[in-house]
Design a protein that fits this description.
By secondary structure, this protein is an alpha/beta fold. The protein is 41% helix and 17% strand. It is built from twelve helices and twelve strands. The strands form four sheets. Strands 7, 8, 9, 10, 11 and 12 form a six-stranded mixed sheet that branches. A two-stranded parallel sheet has the order 1-6. Helix 1 runs antiparallel to helix 2. It starts with a helix and ends with a strand.
């Protein structure tokens, strides 16, 4: 069905192109006879526009067929466009001004130019996927390295990386073909002179292709074929900025003093890091991700909100979140301390006995009598890890004040406070 869809559209295109050619010859004849020149010129441009429309539809069919759509899907797509009153729009390049366009290869798809310059072909291909230690493949699954004294990739990982490297190079070759076929008359490739000459006279061997790292390396593999077309540029008028950039990269060390190096022995003490937050090591389900997103949003609002003069109407939040915020502000512990010193997201760092401690307190309230530590939780506030976290916060604040300190957990869902005491 995919081939049939292509055949139908391409047959429409070919039939139209034949009609277009005949009418083009008629126009030329009429030009010679100088009869009804204006009307036939209008017809000529009308045919050109129709040809572009047919060509656009042909390209659309090719794109759909590459995504496993058949002729019936395409007809259904056109019916839906007509029924819903949509328009299939395409862009015609009507820019005829005397200018140079600078664009990427992807942006040049479907366009043609009389002369094309290609520069920066020495830039290396992006091969970050080959450096990943953990990968995933639909056929091979999750690919993990063997960890001993060092990280060693498995055979499956090597097979996977070989496969994606070949696929990436094949895609780059196709992309380079797209770039080279944008030119109507002349291709100008700006590249460094290469003294080595390849021995390739026909098809580049696969072993050579697998070593492609840039578009320049593709050209280098066939430079024996391109040699008759290469023109060496000797006298070039470089700009001042370019010459300065080249000079800045050259370091003159002819008159430099000898660098004296003295070895030093350092004793490095190992320090332990301590983080008070609860660690989550399992993969989150979709429901847990939604809950986490909800809790993060409420947390952010409480961080930015003015407790004394709250204005929730201007915030783009749901009525449910608004209700939860109002319920928090209506708690006695908050209402009774609106005139106290309120600090949000209080971050501390401390080093004691070679242990680095770090934490962020959601809400810190200091009044004349005491200091109150509050940590927001989404739902559950009965957890030994949370108790350890709050008591760790308390120990840090004790070093900064002599006032009594109270610690609380607040459940956003349950809308209640729970005091955490040392004796719990």
């Amino acid at each position: 069905m995919v081939r049939q869809s292509r055949f139908v559209i391409m047959r429409m295109y070919n039939n139209f192109h034949l009609t277009f050619s005949k009418n083009q010859n008629i126009i030329k004849t009429k030009r010679v006879a100088n009869e009804r020149k204006s009307s036939f010129c209008c017809s000529f441009f009308l045919f050109m526009e129709k040809e572009k429309r047919i060509e656009y539809l042909a390209n659309l069919v090719r794109d759909l067929s590459s995504k496993d759509y058949n002729i019936y899907d395409f007809v259904y797509y056109l019916d839906q466009v007509i029924e819903d009153g949509y328009s299939i729009k395409y862009k015609i390049n009507q820019d005829t001004c005397n200018s140079v366009k600078i664009m990427s290869i992807h942006a040049s798809k479907g366009l043609e130019f009389p002369i094309c310059y290609f520069a920066n072909l020495e830039n290396k291909f992006n091969q970050m996927a080959l450096r990943e230690k953990i990968s995933y493949d639909n056929e091979l699954g999750i690919l993990l390295p063997v960890v001993t004294s060092e990280v060693i990739p498995t055979i499956r990982t090597k097979l996977y990386k070989t496969k994606i490297k070949k696929e990436d190079i094949s895609e780059k070759i196709r992309l380079f073909y797209v770039a080279l076929t944008r030119c109507k008359e002349e291709i100008i490739i700006v590249a460094k002179e290469d003294e080595e000459t390849s021995l390739t006279t026909d098809i580049v061997p696969n072993l050579v292709r697998e070593k492609y790292t840039s578009f320049s390396s593709i050209i280098k593999s066939i430079n024996s074929i391109l040699n008759p077309y290469i023109e060496k540029c000797v006298d070039v008028d470089y700009t001042k900025d370019y010459l300065l950039s080249i000079q800045s990269k050259k370091l003159d060390v002819s008159n430099a003093d000898t660098l004296q190096i003295t070895e030093r022995d350092f004793i490095c003490d190992t320090k332990q890091e301590k983080n008070f937050s609860k660690n989550t090591i399992h993969l989150l389900t979709s429901d847990e991700e939604k809950e986490l997103e909800f809790g993060t949003k409420v947390h952010m609002i409480l961080e930015q909100l003015d407790f004394k003069n709250p204005n929730l109407d201007h915030l783009n939040i749901s009525s449910y979140i608004k209700k939860k915020i109002e319920k928090f502000l209506d708690q006695n512990l908050i209402k009774n301390n609106l005139n106290s010193k309120i600090i949000k997201e209080y971050e501390f760092m401390d080093t004691t006995n070679d242990i680095d401690s770090h934490g962020i307190i959601d809400l810190l309230i200091e009044n004349d009598e005491e200091v109150i530590i509050i940590d927001y939780k989404l739902n559950n506030i009965v957890d030994d890890a949370y108790k350890k976290q709050l008591l760790g916060y308390k120990d840090m604040i004790k070093k900064k004040t002599a006032k009594p300190i109270k610690t609380y957990l607040y459940s956003i869902i349950q809308e209640e406070f729970k005091e955490i005491k040392d004796s719990d």
